Amino acid sequence: MRRAFIALSLAAVSAAPAFAQEQKTWSTFDTDKGAVLGFGVPETDDTVVTFTCERGNPVVLVSSRVGSKGLKANDAAKIILTTGKVKKEFAGKGIANEESAAVDVDAGGKLADIKAVLTGGKSMTLEVKGVKLPVSLDGAADSYAQFEASCQ
Questions:
Q1: How far is it, in rounded angstroms, from Cα 25 to Cα 22?
Q2: How many whole angstroms separate alpha carbon 73 and alpha carbon 9?
Q3: All domains of the chain in start order, with CATH
Q4: Could you tell me the CA-to-CA distances from 118 to 76, 77, 93 in Å, in that order?
Q5: Which of 15, 23, 45, 93 is most buried by a 10 A CB count?
Q6: In what order do the strands lie in the sheet with 76-83?
Q7: Ordered mean pLDDT values, 10 residues apiece, the chain (152 residues)
Q8: What pLDDT was estimated at residue 9?
Q9: How far apart are CA 50 and CA 132, in angstroms?
Q10: SS (H, E, C) the chain
């Protein structure tokens, strides 16, 4: 019994660095036409939400990658982002995710609305049909500032 406990303890300790590497963060990268701001695990496809802009275009693509419940591809949908008393709804549609077989949501939004949510507190709630998820805003304001500058 003691050996089993020690083996489990060692497994847990050795797995801790792997879990630490899986922490989601906010990051921005420039593209040829604008920029992408996202929350997820860096260098992976493990993304919760992204915002994509093209320079000079006032509309930003808001993409939720958390799946949904009861939503079909091309159905009208919305992404709701809430931080404290700030609540913004972005109208869009269901998008089939071929990798996960889920239906995600893509919507359009304005920079000012995204800024209000991402800089308004320490955490926000991301909501799509059937899914509600808390998202840390630690680092979001700095990443947003870089994103906004790249979108101008």
A1: 9
A2: 44
A3: 23-151 (2.60.40)
A4: 24, 21, 22
A5: 93
A6: 25-30, 34-40, 47-54, 59-64, 103-110, 86-96, 76-83, 123-128, 131-136
A7: 39 44 89 97 92 95 97 98 98 94 97 96 98 98 96 92
A8: 38
A9: 16
A10: CHHHHHHHHHHHHHHHHHHHHCCCEEEEEECCCEEEEEEECCCCCCEEEEEEEECCCCEEEEEECCCCCCCCCCCEEEEEEEECCEEEEEEEEEEECCCCCCEEEEEEEEHHHHHHHHCCCCEEEEEECCEEEEEECCCHHHHHHHHHHHHC
Note whether 80 and 91 are within 8 A (CB). no
Handedness of CA 92, 77, 138, 37 (dihedral sign): negative
Give residue 120's identity as a one-letter amino acid code: G
CA distances, 111 to each of 6, 68, 137, 149, 152 (Å): 52, 24, 17, 11, 10
Amino acid at 5: F
